[in-house]
Structures
1.
Amino acid sequence: MVDSKNPVTAPDDAHAARHRVLCHELEQHLHNYHVLDAPTISDADYDLLFRELLALEAAHPELISPHSPSQRVGAAPREGFSKVKRAVRMYSLDNAYSEAELRAFDERVRGGLSHDEPPVYVAEPKLDGASIEVVYEGGKLTLASTRGDGETGEDVTANIRTIRSLPLTIAHAGRLTLRGEVVIRREDLAQVNELRAARGEELWANPRNAASGSLRLIDPKLTAERPLRVIFYDTVEPLAEAHTDTLLGLRKLGLPTHGREQRCVGIDEVLAFIRAFESARFDLPYDTDGVVIKLDLLRERRQLGTTTRFPRWATAYKFAAERKETKVLSISADLGRTGTLTPVAELTPVKLSGTTVSRASLHNVDYIAAKDVRVGDTVAVEKAGEIIPQVINVNVALRPPDTEPWSPPTHCPACDTPLRRSEGEAALRCPNAACPGRLKAAVFYFTRRSGMDVDGLGRVLIEQLVEARIIASLADVFALADHRDKLLELERVGEKSVDNLLASVERARTGRSFDRLLTGLGVPLVGGVAARQIAERYGNLATLLAREPGEVELDLSAIAGIGPKIASSVAAYVADPIQRAALERLLTLGVRAESKRLEKVDGPLTGKSFCVTGTLSEPRENIHAAILARGGEVHTAVKKGTTYLVAGDKVGKAKLDAALKKGAEVIDENRLRELLLE
């Protein structure tokens, strides 16, 4: 941690060499984890390497470059996006929707080639994401832009750098311009929507919208919180004379591709690939909406050329989204654990994409008003991203004459508390923290497989337990054994099912990791990834509760990937008297959720603690990160045991008095730099 204008010391060759090694190792681990899905290092060990990098760059800021893994967290927000004019236009693809249209495409291709042999095509997934162009110069990522109108896009380089599956440097000496898609995996969409729901924002209907919206966020730090991935499918500067060899070359450079291309001789082999892929595509972790067919050889592409809009050597076969019409029997509202009400259409059951659909989300009151969905309407239903049933439109011609527009509820259906709708939000919320409906939803979430994994607690039984006041908080799940007789009195609950339930509760009491507990608690903004990072920091609930809320916020803010909003949310959660009482009761009831704690860094500041105050030469979170990376501890206030008060400009008299009273040595920023370098 050095003022870059007046460094304490210049980095020597050893520091520079170590910096290069750390950057290379961290990038390789990111590639193994995000691209290959084959991590070779634990999250804890990765974090140790990352902290070492932060400490090295704090001591020698001259080593920091845009290509360091430390810069993936996102730069400062911008006023907007600058325009990028492309040297080579990014064309759209013509579409085909039937075998006949594909055969017509094949006839045009064969007519434009100078040989009689069947054309050699490459068939590959048509990725359903946000189109992107990424440029490497001399092996370094220098520019990324959105598709825009094909000729001009928007500069999103700062946002693209936050994508962990994308290498910031590659072993390629010249210029390499890549074309690809930014995607979000379907399993990750739920995490994004959980964050949006907690913020009162409209949920993303599908991964494509989530990817596109995340890519164009003005603040790259927000983009860094999204689980974005990039998949490349072509280059502007040729790597080889065959497209299949180009894709292989990209993979050898460590660049992510889909890896699902197939070389096809003639249109019949293309059609066979499409028929096989139409069902196999659902096994992919990301969305596809068709198959791209393109000539394999670049010389043949050049021979055919382009129209004003499309290349003549490629087309996209689009799968039709399955859509069925059915009737709206009623419109209800599901109450979530955060108090958000989600309108739901109850439907006449209809078979859709292999499953029977009887309910479809209507998202929020604005969505219903825009679609004008009414009870009795005939509606078209589709699965967003092939997963979530949603109402697409209303067949007004079939509307019964006596229907009326739906009126949103004014009071909570569970507790009758007046609902609230904050300015700028689409969501209706029940503000009553003691609402039994919110509790039922919270208990259901708490006991799912991603959380404490308690078998036998379904929605019906949870409703009975809450209504009978056997469960009044999440902690009461672990006191069910005290109410065995009452459980047996419940309707449709037998002795064997009670015994099985209580046995499952006992397994969960000591057999779940701390990150599972954190996930199940449903702390606002904390998804599975953040829960694992928090669990590695503290190891268990008792250690977390032993820290003051302000210290928790500081601890978490220093963790790469934990943004200030998440850190603040966790601190507020443990500070809330109701939540804290429930957490402490979990400990009283013997819940011992443990995770392997990230080993404390052993460094020159081990055994020393710091409170940092006043105006300093760089952001305080950078200073905290440097202290933690060297083995020190950070306190939010001067207390008994605080070793140093680091005093910047305009420090308050109260802090200085507290240091004098509690025996903390007052030092300035220069002295701290010396301690960091010892």
2.
Amino acid sequence: MKIVLIGQPNCGKSTIFNHLAGYKAITSNFPGTTVKFHESRFRLKGEEIHCVDLPGSYSLNSPEPAEREARRFLLTQEYDVIVNILDASLLGRGLELTLELLELEKPMVLVLNMMDEAERKGIVIDEKKLSQILGIPVVKTIAYKGQGLTEMIEAVMKAKAENLKGNPISFSRDVEEIISEVMEDLKRKSNAINIPLRFLAIKLLERDEEFLKLGGDGLEEFRKKLERRHERPSDLVIASERHALAMNIAEGVSKVLTVPKPSIGDRVDDWLLHPIFGYVFLIFIFLGVFMTIFQLGKFLEEPLIGFFDSLEESFSRFFPEGGLRALFQGAYQGFSSGIGIVLPYLLPFLFLLSLLEDSGYLPRVAFLVDSFMHKIGLHGKSVLPFVLGYGCSVPAVMATRILESERDRVLTAILVTLVPCSARMIVILGLVSYFLGPFYALTVYFINLVVIALSGAIFSKFYKEVTPGLILEVPPYRFPPLKITFKKVWFRLREFIGIAWPLLVVGSSVLAFLQHLRLEDFLNKVFLCITYPLGLPQELGVTLLLGILRKELTLLMTFQALGTRNVLEVMTPSQVMSFVLFVTFYVPCVATLAALWKEVGYRWALKGIGFSLFVAFFMGILARLVF
């Protein structure tokens, strides 16, 4: 059985998917696009269920690429049941999407999630009455606690077995008359349309460009007829009709018994979103996250590296002197560094990032820094890709598609590659924090923010277009279930284990073999054009080259190229800062370059590479002079 999860953003859809799928989920792209969706297979009550989690969608009539692809999936793919999830505390708004989904004439289940939030607001919903009106099963859930999910699957099985497609709700009589006339006209023109006629007729009246190509010819008279009756554009007529229907249904099946009292979250927001204290808390929260990662990483790194170093001597005895031993030692150092150097910093970072996401704090960060983003010439929505960039640059670049204008997408995509991702964070913490102290690492982050802000301000001067304001939905605070948090951490850690770790091993082996053959000297001389102006040891040339594959490689290759883990034996603090600032800003990893190429085209991707190299050189030389 194949089921599709769809709902408006922040309705808890992904939480339900995570409970059902756990870490056994895969991420796929819609064909021919960079828009992603998640899918998983699991067994329940003896039946295998294929679950697809579509991107959050406010409606089926949106210009947003992700929402357009979700609609295309619903219209073209084979599946058994639609599971529509909505926020029960915002029932009227959520039902607008439900009314559109009913027009697809597919078996369907409605899930009223976040019932605890509805109850807090004093809202009581009669789900049996709502089920009777819509003609589909209605289930109440509290997803983050896992409540009601078994009942949800039982309802899905019932919807499939009994083919419960629901009752499309009628609009006003005069609107329905015109919809019927359009349907009759479509029937006369073609019998080969695979889209439900009512759904297609409504979309044509809404002037949906994608459907106008299918059968929009000769329908202008119907749209004008509708517009004359209501004295408004036809798409606004349909939208207002749907909105009124949704609100009427919501009012008919729900009651507000008590006036909601301010919650703990509301009181917390009085401080965290305060125009002055909000920024103070923001700084302290991120300082706390940074110091926690640093202290934990430093505490774990020393004993782990000591343990693996002692084992290396024992294992090396089994290999004869020469190239074979060099290969083994390189591979072993890559493997052990992944555990001893990378994981102590990466694990706490991923864990704390997941806590910030699932608690609902990150959207509040976006709200706080929105005005700052506009001052540097970027759209407020650019905050979200920048926040994602601290985890990984690839999804951060891809997230720029949420921006409406090409100008905002291009500028944000280029600037987001300058944000120190988790891989570059490992380099910053493993070199600067460990050897020079956390104050120097904070200085690197501060410099990074200043450079991004100045770059945004300079780039925006070339465009006269003014960016619109930010409309952002802020979810309620949640206590993230540790089970889901650990699964999310594991889901993100798999990329390091499956991609970065093997590259660490292979890259370390290659460098060790090059050193054995004395070929690295030649490559290092080639890269003197980089290392010499920065005042860096010549041995770091190959390190910077291999770092383009994965930034984690830079840290490991540095130790291996210098022949010591104590970097300060061969480099001055000024050289360490110059090296780390160069690594922070120069060409992003190959995966990020591919994403950038795909999102903004090869011309802007090449310009972005050139710009990052310029900034990296400038900051590296400046660090050499200042520190």
3.
Amino acid sequence: MNIVNQTLRMVEINRVLIRYGLDDLFYSLPALKKFRFIYHLSPWNWKKKEPMSRGEKIRLALEDLGPVFIKLGQMLSTRRDMLDEDIADELAKLQDNVPPFPTPLARKIIERELDQPINAIFKTFEDKPLASASIAQVHSATLHSGESVIVKVVRPEIEKTIRHDIELMYLMAKVLQRSGNTGKRLRPVEVVKEYEKTIIDELDLLREAANAGQLRRNFKESKDLYIPDIYWNQSSTNVLVMERIYGVPSGDIALLNAQGVNMKRLAERGVEIFFTQVFTHNFFHADMHPGNIFIDASNPDDPSYIAVDFGIVGTLTPEDQRYLADNFHAFFNRDYKGVAEAHIASGWVPPDTNANEFESAIRTVCEPIFQLPLKDISYGKLLLRLFQTARRFNMEVQPQLVLLQKTLLNIEGLGREVYPDLDLWETAKPFLQRRVDEQFGFSSILKAIKSEFPRLMEQTPYVPVMVNEIVRHVHSQQLNQKSESQQLEQLRNEIKQNNRRVVITLTGATLLIVATLGSTALMPAAVSISAGSWVLGGSGLGLILYSLFRR
């Protein structure tokens, strides 16, 4: 980014900050408090401004700064472990309702990417976008084979814009990080780095298509969640063609009630989908906010979910799965010691963490929450509080757990909105119990045998040869050790004899030097006294060396 464009963008950012009164927050930073007089002297601050909460100011400023900053705000809203609750709540309201880019430009991108005219690819193509977001916009179309599809097109020049703005974000983050304890606690440079990876990944629509394909296979035999089909021949890095789905937006509670949807079943099914993705498939949709989730209400008594937008997914290692299950299980049973031990065993907190102190801190956070009725307990927020507590014990940021926490908050929020009396524990219990059985039960042994059996059978013909090699190697080692032992004993004797000669020679030489110095007529008395010390020291050194070598 050249210096002129960078300067102009910084001017624009400052203008937006001033418009929403965020320069007040800026000059409140510890490192800049001494310059606060500039804030009071600035003419734009003389006029009384409309009162707004700090969270609202930040949200409106991000919306004004455009798509890249909107996306940053959305990501920050998931990092509740790092933000004050009022700011996180306000950022969660950020929506990708940005103006669409011109349709002729969208057509041009599609034709360039797929190397065909629009008419050769689609039977019909709607010029008016269905939706327009920060990264891409969506058009409806029909294939020549008759299927209704949606066409997602990445915004032109968006990658260049993103990279330019990220450079400025790094610059601002470094300033903030040096501004005192608050800056260090927020770890802004780390946040920008995480954001950069997330948003650059979202630019690749083939990655999103692959995620959709994996989720579709995982739920192929399930009635709980439907994943649209991908049309690979019409997709590329900047264009994604996917089956068009029809359903009720999950946030439209009034319409769901009007259609007589079984809301209790719908809420429970959402929780089941979450735990199935995490503990059975180990591949979860990590952006399940209401805008990406629809309801198939064709059978109101047995409603199901439809998901779209697969740019962000999460996975866990087997170790993380195991310890997460242990954490959930300990949580639900109010076993705070178990929670502390699971954190230490997983390596999420340092191994030298005092388990008793950690347990006490967890109890302090969790016990008041558990005094609430079950229907009022948010396990997503409980997990968040736990992460905040663990941070005080030097818990490293676990990106996979942040995604998981975000997904749980989304699912739980959706479930509670649909059915306020949702009992997450009762719905989750069978999944966690099954996980424990799979981990420690007889079925886990059978599974391990089944997994390793083909490899063992492959090696069976070579077992006699391997055994023979082991026996030969052991016998060879024994012979070598015997030979080396004899050689070592012979060498030890030779060293012992040589050492005696060395000690005698050294002692004799020391005495000879001292005698020579002592017989010199011109030597002062002080040197004669020193010579006596040399004699004693030399003799002592000789005896010590002789004793050591003798041993």
